[in-house]
Structures are given as structure tokens and as C-alpha cells.
């Protein structure tokens, strides 16, 4: 769902142009950004299931429901200082959207409580086990994001039409290309 998260950021950028694109992209990936240092120090892990080739992450802190809520609130509060209350709320929601999209596609590997305390059932609707459906959802997010961002770029009056088309087209191509890395 890597590209799908970026697609959602582009959708929001098309509707909320006062927030920098980089802030939206980072907020949609903040949980994964936190996951990698935790993976490197051995707090979280990942494994490939040989029969299916799917990767299961054991991200019991960065991808827990409680962890996602805490990270989203922190991201929102920090963003509020730079972009006001509305910007903070949008960044907080975008940060949490990562968890919502992941719970749709992930296998049952997402805990409710950080560290999987209390050993509660792990969450995940396992859309990854239906590759065509997973690819369709992610492609839809990327395509809609590309369209929204391209449409937004056409409204930028400080650039001539050719520059606006090039900027929107460039971001659209990057978004669509990100599907290659995600699938």
C-alpha cells in the first residue's frame, strides 16, 4: 500500500493547497518511517511467508491502533504550530489514514495495543491475499491522486500553462511510477 498512501496525500493536496506536498507525503508514511528504525534495532520485525510470498510485518508498536492514534495526535499538534488548527487536523487525519488503509490490506498482523499487550487478536482484513483486489485499490488511490494533483496544478496562476502541465504531469508520473515499487 506504499503508493496508495502517496495517492491519498496527492488527493488531499488537490483539495488543501495551503499544506506543502512534502508534509502530506510524510504524514501518510509516518508509521512506516517509524517502523524502519524500530526494525533496525530489533524492536519490530518482518518475515516472508513462503507459501504465498506475502510479507508479514511484526510492527507491534508503529502499526498498533494505539500507536497510530498517539503518532497521529503528535503529528497533528506539531503541524498545528506551522499550519494552524486546520492544517494540524488534516495532518493528524492523514497520519491515521495509514493505519486505516493498512488494516484493509494487511494480513492479521496489526495489534490494537502497543507491543501487543494483553495478547488481543491481531487486526487485518487480508486484502493482500487477493492480489487483484489489492492492486485495484492501490491503483485507484494513485489514479485519483494523480488526477486531483494534476487538476490542482492547472490552477497555479504564478506559472504559465506549459509549466503547470509539466508540474502536474511530473507528479502524476511519479505517483503512477510508485505503483511499481508497491506492487
Automatic annotation (TrEMBL):
**Keyword tags:** Membrane, Transmembrane, Transmembrane helix
| Residues spanning the membrane | 21-40, 60-77, 89-107, 127-152
Highest rank taxon of the organism: Bacteria
Put simply, this protein is called Permease
Source species taxonomy = Bacteria, Bacillati, Bacillota, Bacilli, Bacillales
Amino acid at each position: 500500500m506504499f503508493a496508495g498512501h502517496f495517492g491519498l496525500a496527492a488527493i488531499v493536496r488537490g483539495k488543501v493547497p495551503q499544506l506543502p506536498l512534502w508534509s502530506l507525503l510524510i504524514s501518510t508514511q509516518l508509521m512506516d518511517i517509524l517502523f524502519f528504525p524500530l526494525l533496525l534495532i530489533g524492536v519490530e520485525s518482518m518475515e516472508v511467508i513462503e507459501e504465498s510470498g506475502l510479507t508479514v510485518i511484526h510492527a507491534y508498536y508503529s502499526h498498533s491502533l494505539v500507536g497510530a492514534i498517539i503518532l497521529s495526535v503528535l503529528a497533528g499538534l506539531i503541524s498545528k504550530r506551522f499550519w494552524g488548527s486546520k492544517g494540524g487536523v488534516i495532518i493528524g487525519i492523514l497520519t491515521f489514514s495509514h493505519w486505516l488503509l493498512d488494516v484493509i490490506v494487511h494480513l492479521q498482523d496489526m495489534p490494537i495495543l502497543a507491543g501487543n499487550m494483553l495478547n488481543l487478536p491481531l487486526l487485518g482484513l487480508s486484502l493482500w491475499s487477493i492480489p487483484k483486489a489489492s492492486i485495484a485499490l492501490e491503483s485507484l488511490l494513485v489514479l485519483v491522486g494523480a488526477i486531483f494533483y494534476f487538476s490542482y496544478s492547472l490552477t497555479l496562476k504564478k506559472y504559465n500553462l506549459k509549466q503547470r502541465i509539466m508540474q502536474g504531469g511530473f507528479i502524476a508520473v511519479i505517483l503512477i511510477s510508485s505503483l511499481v515499487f508497491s506492487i
